[in-house]
Amino acid sequence: MMHFFKHHLLHCKSFWGTILLVFLTIQLQAQNYFISGTVVDEIGQPLPGVNVILLGTSKGTSSDFNGKFTLSVPDKNAKLEFSSVGHKKQIISLDGRTKLNIQMEVDLKTLEEIVVIGYGEIKKKELTGSVGRVDSETLIQTPTADLGTALQGQIAGVNVQASSGDPGAPANIQIRGLSSVTGANAPLFVVDGIPYDGNPRVSPNEIESIDVLKDAASASVYGTRGAGGVILITTKSGKAGQMKVALDSYYGFQKITSDLPLMGIEDYLYSFFLSKSHLNGTPIDDSWTQLENNRYDFTNNTNLEGVLQNDYAPVQNHSLSVSGGKDDLTYSIVGTYFQQEGTLINSSYDRMNVRANATFKKKKWTINTGLGFRIEERQYAPYQLLLEAFKYKPFQREIDPSQSTIEDAGSAGSTEAVNLGNMMYKLKQTDFKDGNHLNYNLRAQYRIAKGFNFVSRVGGGFTDNTRVRINPLFRAYDFEGELVQMQNRSGVYNESETRSNWAWENSFNYQKKFNGHQIKTLALFSLEEYVFTSFFGRKYDLISNDLPVLNAATLDPDAGSRTGWNQDKSNSLVGMLGRLQYDYKGRYLLSVSARRDGSSRFSEDARWGIFPSISGGWNISEESFFKGLSDVWNVFKIRASHGTTGNQNFLDYSNAATITLTKDYVYGGLGNESLALGATQTKFANPNVQWETTIQSNLGIDLAFFNNKLTFTADIYDTNKEDMLFPVLLAPSTGAGSNSTVVLNVGNMNNRGLELSTNYRHIGENGFNWSIGATYAKNQNTVTKMSGSNKMAFLDGSTVADGVPNEDKVSVLREGYEAGAFFLIETDGVISDEEELQAYQEAMPGFASTAKVGDLKYVDQDGDGEITIEDRVYKGSGMPDFEVGLNLSAGYKGFDISMQWYGAIGGEVLNGSKAYSYKYGTHQDLVYQWSSANTASNIPAYRGRDHENYRGYTDYWLEDGSFARLRNLSIGYTLPNNASKALGLSKFKVYLAGQNLITITNYSGFDPEVGNDGLNTRGIDKGNYPISASYRAGIQLEF
């Protein structure tokens, strides 16, 4: 500062010139008048962002976050124009006043909602495709850490299913049904214009809006990645005005509100006597002797619920944001910390997000920058912990997970001793995954001429994940002091992966209006690259729990106790896009686009493709003949679209053969055999493999009534999936081994559906506002073509529960049915008497030869006397017939309440948890099993876990999975503006919120919302991590 003054004092001419300039400026300012004031909304709350313009000029300002503004004017009788989106424009004459208090009036008729589309944005009334939108206001009403959860029930046609209650598990999102049966079904995520490889896990506190491109015409601008739809996420940006600091914080707890009924000790003893009688006719007295000889303690009544479950598991979220700026530079910084303890033991999730955005404007340049960083740590619950618990008998000892050794686990070689040891392994297992994620975005726009811009954008991301799973050293001894041989072994599993991607896009945009015509054009060229590297290592038999590292485990390569591998793969994409949009007086709308993509995932002869689209709209309400209805009927628009997208989201190098080194070759004579290393071709190449193609037609209608208070949208669509990749079984003559397949473009699939959404918004003059919205979506999926004969292709992983044979897979692909349909053996009740048994055995002398009274009866559909794959019949699927959403909100004088219901009607669930607990004899129902005293029972007699009564491929475990759920409920109170100011705040709000509070269902398991991948395991309850209810209290502050 001293250098500044010395410099000017030494240059007197400049110094006095500066003084003169300041004096003249003061004189000029003296001729102006300073006008100040406050702008509030219809209920008296401060309204930020209102444009205040000196009428007839471009001079103006905008209200700050407290609704305040200041503006200098040359005339104390000048006129000011106040305008804000969704409010009526007001022109106020000063009439000598220097202070104003302005209350804006809502005008839904003039509300021009802006919708983000691929590579641009558009007014909703100009939209020709099918696009759904959720804004930040709606997201705030749904306190959740997962953006997928926030979308459930909000947009018709967007199916959101909780994959698990495991902390940090993201929801599965599908748009208009399945997009593939072998590749990924997830939509493409685009954050601030940059495509992401997978779910970006953006904190909802960072999001300004979410726009979902549902129809192919809208998604086709993303070419080979748009088959599953596109989710466009726009993060928060700053606005010119006073700096705003906002805090949103909540704390709460979670609780599992359902369970699976397992037996206590009294019920178990009764069931035990029945089962012994059913198994080998053992009398009750002999059963008692057997129990006494095994030294079981029947004073126990062990229930593992208290050990497995973490009641009142805490959850918290804290978000702090700072935003503001000037006309030429705005900024926004958002930091969020989320922490969730699991409702099951040894599970948790911690995440910290930071995102900084800035916008700089200078003459013809507009530059946007964004930087996001995420650190997360996730502890996975032990794999299938609940299934392991279903084996545990109530007479077994209580468990203390802190023990490193257990004495007297059970009698020698007993199943109970093994179950106890395996249960302890599960409880002591730890599985942590640490992740660091960085993403960046830089966009530069240069205005070449009026309406003509050049835009260049570069962005990408980097991810580094490390996962360590430890099975600690643990020993259990039986009553005789012998070491129990358990299924699990101590060991260390290390996995690391890095992902990186970058994208560079350059585009020219031209817009022109003339004589009622409006033309917008886009020409774009893009480059993208994705790189993935991973390493996995595993070793068994730890020396000590104090050294849980790979080097502290024993080596035994021949026994397979050490395995490891790594992957290095990459793919790149080149795209060119052209789009033309035409609008005549807001009445007739047309959009035409074509994208040409080239992907390195395919061979040179098959890597290029063109994805065209066309869409149009007719705003009938803009026609002159409609004006007589416009006071009541505000919007009447018809839309139609037809487009093509592609899907390249499957494994890399599908067009290449795979050579695998294995130690499978036997050398040496009898008694001197040894295994030698050799190479074999394990995957055959298909150089003609190409992307799957989606062709979709969409017809829609938009209606609005009563000054746009009541809106209604309907869409019908028909989607054909062509050239779908199916695994085709290779002939044994190829030498590829049994069950080897090659991937071919040989399948077709169809999705067709109906989507409805409506909303009514009422703004009362007395400050009572309320709204109601509803969505309905029905999607019908059908596999229309498969290779070869019309046989069933069973989906991997579709067994009801682990531990059952491979033939117990239940989900299939078959022409004429939905993908993932259940094909099951039909049951026909329980054999109730000897006469019925004789008839059953005569009908199936082979299969039923060992059947007894009290067993399940299976239906021989083809009458060949056996139960085979040919006897399986269609029994529905895990896909719901339709989905509904209901959103309610109301506000009055600072109080507000919002409620969201979601329902999925018609889907089936295979209750694998029930099947598993039946198999191990612990389910409460077995008290009511068939017996000579209960011959009318429909529960088969328990005859041991490997009996045919408990096979997973039957419809005995099939239940109606329909449910309706109170997804979110929030009640809040916002202090009046004066009270907030007295606290030094511009906003003070407190609220209570709950999630998954009520579930209405007939399903007898933990939860009907099951399935991890959307296809293979959809509708199959494998002892999934239960979805819990959460209860939260929060506060929102703005400074």
Give a short synopsis of this structure.
This protein is mainly beta.
What are the defining features of this structure?
single chain, about 1050 residues, mainly beta, Immunoglobulin-like, Ferric Hydroxamate Uptake Protein, Chain A, domain 1, 51 strands
Helices, by number, come to 13
Largest sheet: 22 strands, antiparallel, barrel
Low-pLDDT segments, ≥5 res: 1-30, 557-561
- If you average the pLDDT, what whole number results? 85
The amount of beta strand, in percent, is over 45%
The percent range for helix content is 10-25%
**CATH top level class name of the domain at 115-243:** Mainly Beta
Measured on Cα atoms, how large is the radius of gyration? 34 Å
The CATH superfamily of the domain at 115-243 is TonB-dependent receptor, plug domain
| Molecular shape | globular
CATH architecture of the domain at 115-243: Beta Complex
Structural class: mainly beta
CATH topology name of the domain at 115-243, in short, is Ferric Hydroxamate Uptake Protein, Chain A, domain 1
Q: Whole-Å distance between the termini?
A: 32 Å
Description:
By secondary structure, the protein is mainly β. Among the domains are: 28 residues; 78 residues, Immunoglobulin-like; 129 residues, TonB-dependent receptor, plug domain (Ferric Hydroxamate Uptake Protein, Chain A, domain 1), CATH 2.170.130. Helices cover 11% and strands 47% of the residues. β26 and β27 form a beta hairpin. The longest helix is centred in the N-terminal third of the chain and has 19 residues. The two termini are 32 Å apart. Belongs to the TonB-dependent receptor family. It is a multi-pass membrane protein. Keywords: Cell outer membrane, Membrane, Transmembrane, Transmembrane beta strand, Transport.
